[in-house]
Description:
Layout: E1 2-4, E2 7-9, H1 16-34, H2 38-43, H3 48-59, H4 63-77, H5 83-115, H6 118-127, H7 133-149, H8 155-167
Antiparallel strand pairs: 1-2
Helix pairs in contact: 1-4, 3-4, 5-7, 5-8, 7-8
Amino acid sequence: MIEEDNLIFDEDYKSKTDIKKEMAALRELGAEISKLPNKIYQSLNLPEDVNEGFQTLKRIQSHQARKRQYQYIGKLLRDIDTDPILQAIDDWKNGRKTLQVKNKKMEQLAKKLIEGDKNVHNDFFNEHSTIDIQKARQLIRAAIKEKKSEKPNGASKKLIQFLKDFFIN
């Protein structure tokens, strides 16, 4: 408590508006948690009562009932430290963005290899000498053939997957 000119201020005081904003944020957090993939959700190690709240939410079809359940989950989340949960969600989102960027780069690389001349191929294989050259050339030839015939058979997808396996994993 702080006393200033005979007025006493409580440092822990929260206005009704502040409390409502916090509850809305916890409801939003509950909604984000419910959209997480099962693997990420399991890694959060939520308390049993919160877990039960989310299990109940999965069974609810009615919009109004779901809204009430989110309210209840928000109330349960008040009692736990949400910082690790927020961090896990942020890490998951950033990981997805990073993976999307890497996937886009692999698609562009495959496109260059398919459309490129022998110099592009030679430069690529010189830079990445540990790649399975025979397999890569085979996939590139199949993708070029696929492009020329204009009949998709999945060769370019196989080339992209091969590149992803080499560079990302």
